[in-house]
Amino acid sequence: MAVPHPSPTHRIEDPARRAAHDRVGLPSAPLPGLERDWSRVVLARDAEGRTRRWHVLDNGPALEAEGVEPVGTVLAVHGNPTWSYLWRRVLAQAPPGWRVVAVDQLGMGWSERPGTPRTLGQRVADLGGLTDALGLTGPVVTLAHDWGGPVSLGWALAHREQLAAVVLTNTAVHQPVEHAAPAVIRLARAPMLLAQACRTTPAFVRATTALSRPALARDVRDAFAAPYASAARRDAVADFVRDIPFEPDHPSRRTLDDIAAGTATLDVPALLVWGTRDPVFSQRYLEDLLRRLPHADVQVYPTASHLVLEDSPGGVGVVWDWVRRRAGGDGARASHDVGAEGTAPGGSAAVVPVRVDLSRPDEVAIVELGEGERRVTFGKLDERVDAVAQGLAARGVQPGDRVAVLVPPGVDLTTVVYAVWRLGAVVVVADAGLGLRRLASALSGAGPAHVVGIGRALALAAATRVPGSRIRTDGGGLDALADEGRGGTDPLPDRLDDEADGAILFTSGATGPPKGVVYTRRGLGAQVALLWETFGFGPGERFVAAFAPFALYGPALGLSSAVPDMDVTAPHTLTATGLAEAVAAVDATMVFAAPAALRNVVATAGSLTADQRGVLGGVRLVLSAGAPVPPDLLREVQEVLPGAQTQTPYGMTEALPVATHDPTATATDELTAQDGVCVGRPVPGVEVGVAALGTDGIPTEELGTGTGVVGEIVVRGPHVKDRYDRRWAAQEHSDRPTGWHRTGDVGHLDEDGRLWVEGRLAHVLTTADGPVTPYPVEDRVREVPGLVDVAVVGVGPTGAQLVVLVLVPGHRGGALARVTGAAAGAGALAGPDLAARARAAAGVPVAAVLVRDWLPVDVRHASKVDRGALADWAEGILHGRRTTDRLRDVLAGRGRARAPRRRSR
Questions:
Q1: N or C: which end of the chain has fewer CB within 10 A?
Q2: How sure is the predictor about 866, in pLDDT bands with cuts at 50, 70 and 90?
Q3: Other CB atoms closer than 10 Å to residue 833's CB: what's the count?
Q4: Domain 536-648, CATH among 3.40.50.2300, 3.30.420.270, 3.40.50.980, 3.40.50.1970
């Protein structure tokens, strides 16, 4: 049924009310963040040829007064019920030479109230009349939000010769028929509520700004509502809602369909900036736009809602960076190279296909321990993978689809992942250790087309609005899927593109929101090959997969593997007995385990029987990654596994391994001769450079390999990530020079080519005397007797930070020395004697020495100190506050350390 448009707005007889209704131009009262000099009134013809008065925010006159010819214009179009105030930061941050014209659509903001409703087609034509009056000739970058999106895209399609690029923020051009319209819009559009919610009262106007998280300041909310102070001035707010064409015979339906179809023909650069917590324009609208604009760059903000640039103001800088690079001629970046010119090394390096190795089909591929034991051979695993792949195809999974996999490590997880790869689809994996909120944000941001998982995980996905169809694996679900696949007749894909996406793996989020790391199929294969070559994997080797990132690689390597009885997402749950049982299950020769897992193995070794100790004596290699591994821990591990060599691969989600060595085979004085933690020499095929830190703590653009130069560690190799998923800004920052990855770690190279890590770039203290890296200070202070652990944090403004030491008193291997009068985790100033000894050892000026019972750590590895939370806590202590909001988050479960740890990083 068509939605009727109202008759023309009734006349307003009262002169005062008529003046308020007709007011054009910004009122005299100041509004936060808005420069009055931007405000102007422009006369322009509307769609019917009538002259209308438009209010715009425009820095063009200021540029003209300065004699500056604009290099380009950003044409910013708001939606409903906002106005050009939405773009005030875009104007404030405009780079030199760029013009910004932010319009108030007719009937909206401070523009003329035309007195009759306007359709989408009219609004597109209205905007064209305004740009003609302004004399915009290009290049023009359109920027839009909400229902300003279709209006701006309609203008773009009609002005292709002027169009340089398109930027869209939380909008839509199509309502999928299989999904209901957004609940907020359905409610506002209900015939009995529309007038009351949108016109008679300011409910709809106020609700829009109420969606923001964190909440907007009161004066900002009032500024957004200022043009809509009376019912008469809210006519267009109601009209805009009525004009949303959900029905097939709606007057604006044809126009919207034409704009949606035309959007797919735009070949200019495009950027989609999205707040994933938007209850109006949810994930499905982003996915729809990406299908129409597959070349678009994407910047997702997992914590932002509908007004994405209000919730994440840093997005304005991202928009301008993107505009300058994609539309302003600033896109070229110098290709600094410490090695050979050209693409990343190893372009033709060995690649192990990410499929089940069938060279020994009758050997055991996986043993899963826990509640009962499951075993599967390589041959049976391959058959099951094919059957499940066929079943997934029957359920609609296609090559290129993103498939979120929420299955515990073991036979079923391996089966599902290899089946997804067999189809040419993309595996999306996020660690449950991220916590409920961040896990949901990570998965939603990736936009999976399907979610495969156990029932509990699917319920979580539904509760947190993770998109995609649901396919259950437990309760016989995976068996049913395999049976369904065995009856299938359609062949599986024969040839798969090695350059296509293969997996999206999420970072731990230790220094910010988790980021999706995209690997191509070739990149995954290169990583598997690099592990094979670096650590001497060969026929007859078998391993215990107690480290989640490598738990899936056994079948591709042709190695029998055992998944121990533990929670792989909580490494510290691995016990010595559990490890011995896993080693015995496959007669393992290798163990992959995180430092926290090894620490608990050592702590529980007293429960081992003589037979179990004998089993562990057959292990030849222990690999530990995920965080720097203390040599003293490895020596204790060798007491439990006496025949094992130890290797500590250094790397990160974006590139692993980068370097490796055996700390126990190196003299102690060598390991302590330089600042930081030695992580060894780069593995074959990987290059390492260092971008030196400036006095402000910012790395240079140039890379070098000079001995002892401290800076950001930058790597290149065939297995390095392809890109960050939907994080354009992070990718641009990390991909410098092109083809390299900026790790976010700081360190230096020694004269023997070994790499030493000195901490995270985000944790470097920027003092008045220059940058201070944390690990060297901590290592020196850790030598003070009577300490279990140490962390150094900075308090104060960037460039003038003060060094604060946080100590955990006690005896290594023994109980903690309690802090007098303090509850667990609380803190206080250190006593004079301890403070003096710590200051003397630090080697840098120290402003304060604090003591705590424990250091907060990240959840994923339980090994990395949450320095941001610790710095907040330290600042609170020094200012008389006992517990900060961030530390309360930690106490609530984000990463509390419950026992003393040694050399936590």
A1: N
A2: confident
A3: 8
A4: 3.40.50.980
